[in-house]
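Researcher: I'm preparing a figure for a lab meeting and need a structural model of a single chain. I don't have an experimental structure, so a prediction will have to do for now. The sequence is pasted below. Please return the structure as tokens so I can convert it later.
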Amino acid sequence: MQYINLKQQNPKLTQKLTKQRPIRILHVVGGMVRAGTETWLMHILRNIDRDAFQMDFLVHTNEECDYDAEIRALGSKIIPCLNSSQPWLYARNFRRVLRDNEPYDIVHSHVHHFSGFVLWLAKRAGIPVRIAHSHLDSSVVESKSRLYRRLYLSLTKVLIARNATLGLAASRQARKDLFYQTKASEQRWQLLSCGVNLDSFKNEIDSQKMRGELGIPSDAFVIGHVGRFHSQKNHKFIIDIAAEVVKQEPKMRLLLVGEGDLVPDIKQKVMLKGLSEKVIFAGSRSDVSSLMMGVMDTFLFPSLYEGLGLVLIEAQAAGLQCILSDTIPEEADVVKQLMRRMSLSQPAYSWAESILATRNTRANVNRKEAFRWIEQSSFNVKNSLESMKNIYAKNLNLYANKI
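Model: Understood. Here is the structure written out token by token.
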């Protein structure tokens, strides 16, 4: 679909807004933690023309999150809206947020199925453009849910269909998971490649220094993983795989980057497996690109489900060979020579064999070539930013032409 450039639009609404005040967008997220979707939103916020677009963030927590301070420093708001598990209280809080911070032209919701309720409230409040954004394909897990949960999921999909003016999805699987698909709705439910900032991948990295800071020997074989400690990311299986790798490669180290509720459970499993000296818990890091280029030898990503897995795009930009689950959408495979997909039904020792194979074989593409592939793709944040700006402008003008 061709998007119309903001400057080429009918001046009826966008020129009026951008001259008198910026187009105002309220993003709805759980919390601005250092995760894939939230990091992409930060790339957009840092690079968008903030005189033309004002982005605020409605969050479902009172806790300070990784990006909150930077968001405020850039002139945007973090607005808590609590009680998401109590619909009537949440509805009252949501109306208060809109009333106290009006006007908003766009509500852009990133909370998957719960977006149905969010956009229903936004429509009742008179928000003209209402976007549901699907960053996940959780259908495999949700298919095993109990009846009450399945009824909830069906209801939220109905609410999205009735109240979203536009749906965006990170992949075809993510689109299918959240939106009802018909030929008539193809233009309404669109794909959008969320991008990554590639500037840091151009930096020179002192590998020996970085490994030393993490206590990793210079001759270690380092398996890397980046992801929040949530059941979706399958950390327990990652530890099982590492235990198999170390049987054949004693110099193995596993570098886990991220935070989350499951950290204590995973640390306990590491201890029980006798891997305490082999696993590094790096926590939340802002230098993921440097860790990928300077520390990791291969990248492991056996997620149970993903909408896309933006961290895989970063791993490819770093030139890392990736061992990943076949549940991940194929749109993630930009540099196909670096990607090896495996079934989660295969045992840990089979995954270990694939990882060890990357130690002994070179990929058919070097780091510079892999970086160029990513740079030219739709996953470059510069391309993603232009798409996002044009989506906002076009949809506001479609609304303007109706009034």
